Amino acid sequence: MNSGNEVRGFFNVSFATNAIAAAVVGLSYCFVNTPYQAALSSIGCYALSGALTNWLAIYMLFEKVPFLYGSGVIPEQFESFKAGIRNLIMQEFFTQENVNAVVSLGNHSQKWGALADELDYDKMYDALTQGLLESQMGKLLAMVGGQSAIESLRAPVQGKLQAVIRETLEDEKLQQQILNKFQQQDEEFLKRIEGIVEHRLDALTPKMVKNIIQKMIREHLGWLVVWGGVFGGLIGFIAHFL
């Protein structure tokens, strides 16, 4: 729907520009044998030639015109456009450096250590005490109050767990091992992404590539027709006085 609106917008702007230029030429015949006829005719003809030339050039980007060499450049060069799309995706976005920047925290120990503050220590402590109560020690603990008896240990045990985990995460050797693992996975991830991109690009046809580029830029190219008419008219106005 949007693509259709954009194409219609392009033709509306182009048609309006050419129609106005042609109307100026026609208007010149209303001033036969007056000083205005030559001026209006010159302005209208130059404006029409500028607008038509730019319109034809834009049309030839997307469509093959018989006997006009170089026309239909976008569908004709669709393999080059596919290669350009692939390079843009893989060399600008999915680079090893960009992926590493996303999945790694670098070698900043403080950042790694900060992960210790994000953990749920209540859940850890509950799992630990549940394991104790279900073990052979559970009977002994039950004799001294069970769960309620060891609840007072929650805060000190959680504090100790947090300190140990923080110290472990701040170990640079461990950090490097984790990063190396991430990098190995990153390479596999990039290969999968490249395979997906290649598969999708292989499915593209010249018409599909043409439609993609047409959707992106054709509406805006209509302004080239407008400015072709405007500057053509100005040149015609100047030429009239030369």
TrEMBL record:
Annotated TM spans: 12-32, 38-62, 221-241
Keywords: Membrane, Transmembrane, Transmembrane helix
Signal peptide region: none
Pfam families, alphabetized: DUF445 (PF04286)
Protein name: DUF445 domain-containing protein
Organism: Candidatus Berkiella aquae
